[in-house]
Specification:
Blueprint (H helix, E strand, L loop, with lengths): L1 H28 L27 E2 L9 E3 L8 E3 L2 E3 L7 E3 L6 E8 L14 E5 L3 E5 L34 E8 L2 E2 L5 E3 L2 E6 L2 E8 L21 E2 L7 E9 L1
Antiparallel strand pairs: 1-15, 2-5, 3-4, 4-15, 5-14, 6-9, 6-15, 7-8, 7-14, 9-12, 10-11, 12-13
């Protein structure tokens, strides 16, 4: 009988201890001040100017390409007209004067109407982050090509989740978050680059982890580099652009 009483007492003590722990945990969880963060406060921005964030860097002012240059540093030769600029085939790629790492980029683009042309020859261009990592621009409206080379693909690496393309001569938008790669002291890769992309408001790339720089032949590889310019590609098509802005992240 004595042993049974001892067992009962031990059970009661265990129950009391267990309940005390629950009460203590509940008190910790329901105390709001312990989970509130007050500093540092996020930077205040506004989007009153045509939905362009107030902290954005405008890369085209509707008048000139003074924020851009050719690869050799000379003046960009693409055509500027009616608040847009258009590739002048054969004049070469253009790059931003400013160099970037992690960015949010908004860009609007339009492919030309081209008859009797299909595949990669129909409205081809590209946006290269840090001059190395390409998001493909192409007229992919009823235009068959390899899917990791169609509009919205991270060229030769990731096909878009869906095809959100509009037809030629219609303005389209990309909204892109690009996270730059980082490298170790010995120049080996530390963290891969990544890209998230909305095409005409539709998610087509979600945190796609890049395998390396864009290549046309062979497999992508990383090479150590610092921050670098954004590049727009002259692929021989008269693709037009407007309303380009970037935010440094």
């Amino acid at each position: 009988m004595k042993n049974k009483n001892i067992i009962k007492i031990k059970l009661i003590l265990l129950i009391l201890l267990f309940n005390t722990n629950i009460i203590t945990s509940a008190q910790e969880i329901i105390n709001p001040e312990e989970t509130e963060i007050w500093e540092p406060t996020p930077l205040i921005i506004d989007t009153f100017n045509r939905s362009i964030p107030s902290d954005a860097i405008i890369l085209f002012n509707k008048k000139s390409l003074d924020k851009w240059k050719r690869l050799d540093g000379s003046k960009a030769l693409w055509s500027v007209e009616k608040d847009t600029f258009t590739i002048k085939p054969g004049t070469g790629d253009i790059i931003t004067n400013q160099e970037f790492t992690d960015v949010q980029l908004h860009i609007e683009w339009r492919t030309p109407i081209v008859e009797d042309t299909m595949g990669q020859n129909r409205g081809n261009s590209g946006i290269y982050f840090q001059q190395r990592y390409e998001l493909q621009i192409l007229d992919s409206f009823e235009n068959k090509t390899y899917i990791n080379g169609q509009a919205g693909s991270i060229y030769k690496q990731f096909s878009p989740l869906v095809n959100a393309s509009k037809g030629p001569d219609i303005w389209q938008t990309y909204d892109i978050v690009f996270i730059a790669p980082t490298f170790n002291i010995d120049k080996s890769i530390k963290t891969n680059a990544s890209m998230t992309v909305f095409h005409n408001g539709v998610l087509i790339q979600f945190n796609s982890i890049l395998k390396g720089s864009t290549t046309y032949i062979g497999q992508p590889e990383y090479e150590s580099h610092e921050k670098d310019s954004i590049l727009l590609q002259d692929h021989g098509s008269k693709v037009s652009f407007r309303n380009i802005w970037v935010r440094e992240l």
